[in-house]
């Protein structure tokens, strides 16, 4: 982590991203092939990381909570096709992370559970852009949060539950 702080210090995003590109060339290719990058909630927006992923041919895990906290006005529909395109050729479905804010006072902290309204609009959007999507839940209650989210979403229009943790839209 200390080395990462020197590479990406958040003081100059463009310089940080260029340093990342220079330093990643020192990483063995078999490790690079297993890497994904994710936008964060303070410094690097989804667009910043998307551009880096496109440059390095790496998949982007779009974190919707982070995107809500840190963006330059772009909506998920503005970048969804480009985000999903970073997964082409991997043999894997696109992956996203979802969490809900703990409170208005702590908007970056993860809640125990997921508010379905933090995910549902994206799922409806995504159905026209990809056939399969992996959703990784980041919540303090772990499996309980997943089962509750799937149950709640299965009551939403256009969504049907298929198995304990699978939804069909």
Q: Give the integer mean of the pLDDT values.
A: 93
Terminal CA distance: 39 Å
Tell me the Rg in angstroms: 17 Å
H and E string: HHHEHEHHEHEHEE
* Total strand segments: 6
The helicity comes to 40-55%
Count up the helices. 8
Mind summarizing the main beta sheet?
A: 4 strands, parallel
> Based on the structure, what is the oligomeric state of the protein chains?
single chain
> Low-confidence runs (pLDDT<50, min 5 residues)?
1-6
Fold topology:
Blueprint: H1 2-7, H2 13-24, H3 29-32, E1 37-38, H4 46-56, E2 60-63, H5 64-69, H6 76-85, E3 95-98, H7 120-126, E4 134-137, H8 142-153, E5 160-161, E6 167-168
Parallel strand pairs: 1-2, 2-3, 3-4
Antiparallel strand pairs: 5-6
Descriptive report:
The protein has 169 residues and is an alpha/beta fold. The relative contact order is 0.11. The chain is globular. The chain is built from 8 helices and 6 strands; from the N terminus they run H-H-H-E-H-E-H-H-E-H-E-H-E-E. It has a 4-stranded parallel β-sheet.
Summed up:
With 169 residues, the protein is an alpha/beta fold.
């Amino acid at each position: 982590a200390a080395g990462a702080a020197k590479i990406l210090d958040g003081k100059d995003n463009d310089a940080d991203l260029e340093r990342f590109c220079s330093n990643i060339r020192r990483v063995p290719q078999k490790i690079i092939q297993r890497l994904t990058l994710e936008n964060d909630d303070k410094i690097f927006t989804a667009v910043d990381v998307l551009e880096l992923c496109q440059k390095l041919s790496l998949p982007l895990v779009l974190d919707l909570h982070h995107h809500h906290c840190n963006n330059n006005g772009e909506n998920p529909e503005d970048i969804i096709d480009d985000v999903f395109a970073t997964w082409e050729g991997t043999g894997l479905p696109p992956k996203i992370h979802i969490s809900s804010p703990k409170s208005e006072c702590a908007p970056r902290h993860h809640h125990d559970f997921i508010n379905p309204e933090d995910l549902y609009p994206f799922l409806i959007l995504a159905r026209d852009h990809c056939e399969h999507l992996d959703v990784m839940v980041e919540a303090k209650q772990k499996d309980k949060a997943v089962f509750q989210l799937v149950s709640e979403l299965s009551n939403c229009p256009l969504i049907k539950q298929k198995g304990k943790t699978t939804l069909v839209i």
